[in-house]
Amino acid sequence: MAEKSDPNYKVIAENRRARFDYFIESDLEVGIILTGSEVKSLRTGQSNIADSYASVENGELWLINGYIAPYKQAGIFGHEERARRKLLVSKRELSRLWQAVGREGMTLVPLVMYFNHRGIVKLKIGVAKGKKAHDKRETSAKRDWGRQKQRLLKQG
């Protein structure tokens, strides 16, 4: 990620639940094709990627069900809130993602949407495998034990 002092770097939306619901094998930074009203709406921080996913269709990578709030000042030139948005990735990476989804049963989960140091919207997607209920309980137990251990170390 970028340094904190960078004035252009800003997290727009984060999918915090993704790490709880999935084992993230690897992640990849991709570009996203947006219209002007979508970018202006993102500058105000009104978006949600929690219930969205990425999919490889017809040799292209798409973000499906990502929410970007309408920009009121755009009037009739606005955008659709939950439109499918094309993601930009190299052909080599696209083939690797397609193989991971097709053969290995992985899922492409958006993790973070942000403005990079140049002020361009980027999306970090994770190649993930879904967790079962017992895996989620185990993750929760480890997190709770970590917190409890920190408390004990502070007291002692």
The shape is globular
Side-by-side strand order of the widest sheet: 1-8-9-2-7-5-4
Order of helices and strands: EHEHEEEEEHEEH
Main sheet? 7 strands, antiparallel
How would you sum up this structure, described in words?
The chain is an alpha+beta fold. The protein contains four helices and nine strands. It has helices at 18-21, 36-43, 91-102, 133-155, and strands at 10-14, 22-32, 47-48, 53-57, 60-64, 67-68, 85-88, 107-115, 121-130. The strands form two sheets. Strands 1-8-9-2-7-5-4 form a seven-stranded antiparallel beta sheet. It has a two-stranded antiparallel ribbon with strand order 3-6. A hairpin with a 5-residue loop joins β8 (107-115) and β9 (121-130). It is globular and about 60 Å long. The model has no long low-confidence stretch (mean pLDDT 85).
Summary keywords:
30% helix; alpha+beta; globular; 7-stranded antiparallel β-sheet; 156 residues; 9 strands
